[in-house]
Design a protein that fits this description.
Elements lengths: L2 E9 L4 E7 L10 E7 L4 H12 L9 E9 L2 E9 L6 H6 L8 H20 L2 E2 L8 E3 L5 E3 L6 E2 L17 H6 L4 H17 L9 H9 L13 H10 L10 H4 L3 H4 L55 E2 L5 E2 L2 H9 L17
Length: about 350
């Protein structure tokens, strides 16, 4: 297909996106397209993206790919991928067009349902998007949702090949802690998208990246559930914001949630889903990373297991906050010295996960 590069629509780290206008309409009618281009020497990621889009071509909620081409422009060889043009811009653009940057709940429901259909199809074919955010959700001329930008996508269960992968505001706890990025990471990002559509603000209110990553990965804090949502909407968001990825709801399960299902089953073979939280059905059995250990000594922990002796500040190392973290060395020393503890007193007991 012969085409002419039009105005610039956007850019990323290695690629730019322009309008692509067919040079001639003879022999058929060609749609207005977008072309994503990068230098040939840096084209491995874009080549991979094109191959993934070819596999996802049958999903109406995923942006279509019309092919690839090479061109020489300003003395440089470029690799180009021709894509469906989204007339409605991005979901971020849609929020900007509202005076208070909030979408009506009916529109939040509609966009979320379409987004989840696309994500379910992506996961069904064995991929993880890895960068779900408002800027990567496009809208067609009819308002239909299109998942785009698969530059960071990977096979589920595959090695990410890098450290942090994605956009910090939408990263899941398991990504921050251990680099783990499976289908549940996309679901966490869906929760962030829904919260942002409902409030007009990012799910996390934090301008410092290091502080943001600490809040995401350490402890039990999750983003605040938007108070403006209905009870069904609040419950939906809570299913996405579950710290343990194995307890987080899947796209398939969420498509049957009352918030977006309209009382109709998404798929005949979907297992019946109880509206009790998955986290009530299982217990987190281990810390997610070494930095998780200090919260064992938190005064807010529930009382279920081994006692923690009370130590003076001189015998313990301090940890940022209003509590002391007692090192294993100190605890073992006291046990070896036959220090006697009153095991019937549970005031200082903490949860061992």
């Amino acid at each position: 297909m012969d085409w002419i590069r039009g105005e610039k629509l956007g850019h990323g780290c290695f690629a730019i996106v322009n309008l692509a206008v067919p040079r001639s309409k003879s022999g058929g009618v060609f749609p207005l397209m977008a072309v994503k281009s990068c230098g040939f020497s840096q084209s491995s990621s874009l080549v991979k993206e094109k191959l993934i889009l070819d596999e996802l071509k049958d999903c109406p909620e995923v942006i279509r790919c019309f092919g690839e081409s090479f061109s020489y422009e300003n003395g440089e060889k470029l690799y180009n991928v021709l894509l469906e043009y989204a007339w409605g811009g991005t979901l971020a653009d849609k929020l900007d067009n509202y005076s208070n940057r909030r979408l009506p709940e009916s529109e939040v429901r509609r966009c979320t349902k379409a987004l989840l259909r696309g994500i379910h199809y992506i996961h069904k074919l064995g991929y993880v998007h890895c960068d779900i955010k408002l800027q990567n959700i496009l809208l067609g001329s009819d308002g239909g949702v299109k998942v785009a930008d698969f530059g960071l996508a990977k096979k589920a269960g595959g090695v990410s090949g890098c450290g942090l992968r994605g956009t910090p505001l939408y990263m899941s706890p398991e990504m921050v802690c251990s680099g783990e990025q499976g289908p549940p990471a996309d679901i966490w990002a869906v929760g962030c998208v829904v919260a942002e559509m409902a409030t007009g603000y990012p799910a996390w209110q934090c301008s410092d990246v290091a502080g943001l990553l600490f809040r995401i990965g350490i402890g039990e804090e999750v983003p605040e559930v938007p108070g403006s949502l209905s009870e069904e909407g609040k419950d939906f968001v809570r299913r996405c914001f579950v710290k343990n990825p194995s307890n987080r709801w899947t796209a398939k399960m969420l498509l049957n949630h009352p918030f977006i299902s309209d009382g109709q089953d998404f798929d005949d073979d979907v297992d019946a889903v109880s509206l009790t939280t998955k986290e009530e059905e299982s217990v987190t059995i281990s810390p997610r990373c070494p930095l998780d250990f200090p919260d064992w000594a938190s005064s807010t922990c529930s009382i279920t297991s081994l006692p923690l002796p009370v130590y003076s500040p001189e015998s313990a190392s301090s940890f940022p906050g209003d509590f002391w973290y007692v090192s294993p060395r100190v605890r073992l020393r006291d046990l070896v010295n036959n220090q006697i503890h009153d095991w019937s007193v549970s005031d200082d007991w903490v949860t061992v996960r």
